[in-house]
Amino acid sequence: MVKITVSGHPGSGTSTLVSKLVQSYNWTSLNGGDVFRSEAKKRGMTLADFGELCKADLQVDKELDDLLKEKMSGHDSFDIVESRLSGWWAHLLNIDCVRLWVDVNDEERAQRVVAREGGTVIQAIEANAKRSAVDAERFTKLYNIQPQDREAYTHVLDASEMSIDEVFSAVVKILEDFK
């Protein structure tokens, strides 16, 4: 059964947090990005080409979301599910778990992306803004929701000025208090 969903904009540290949770608790995890990559591979497409297909055909995106929801609600579900919309899916599926949104300001997210991928902070801010706008349009068309809308989450953590260890400690406390 899903214990926690972890959502946040790119660069918010969700993948790093999930890695620490998996290591500490020996939990299983599912990353929405992994589902995306797996589907691209299954179709014999590059990630870029599959991304273009998803933009051109929203039904493909919807099928991926349906697959993620199915994996979340089945008997063999994962302990942790990480994706931009996993908190929303848990909310709409009435899954009783911590639904966490990791909030990080634009500049900090950009600095994290630059540290991971290179480039400049200005380029990363622009790329993040463009990606967020494209995603916002897509999620509105598909579901009339935005990932960051707070109603889906049991907890919102502002991690803008927190180290990964501080974020991890805060999430451990959230998990302990949720039981």
Give the key terms.
179 residues; alpha/beta; 8 helices; 5 strands
Summarize the structure.
The chain is an alpha/beta fold.
Write the layout of secondary structure elements.
Layout: E1 4-7, H1 14-25, E2 29-31, H2 32-42, H3 47-56, H4 58-73, E3 80-82, H5 86-92, E4 98-103, H6 106-117, H7 121-143, E5 155-158, H8 164-178
Parallel strand pairs: 1-3, 1-4, 2-3, 4-5
Detailed description of the structure:
There is one protein chain. The chain has 179 residues and is of the alpha/beta class. The protein has a single domain (4-178), classed as Rossmann fold. 59% of the residues lie in helices and 11% in strands. It is built from 8 helices and 5 strands. The protein has a 5-stranded parallel beta sheet with strand order 2-3-1-4-5. Helix 1 (14-25) packs across helix 8 and helix 3 (47-56) packs across helix 4 (58-73). The longest helix is centred in the C-terminal third of the chain and has 23 residues, at 121-143. It is globular and about 45 Å long.
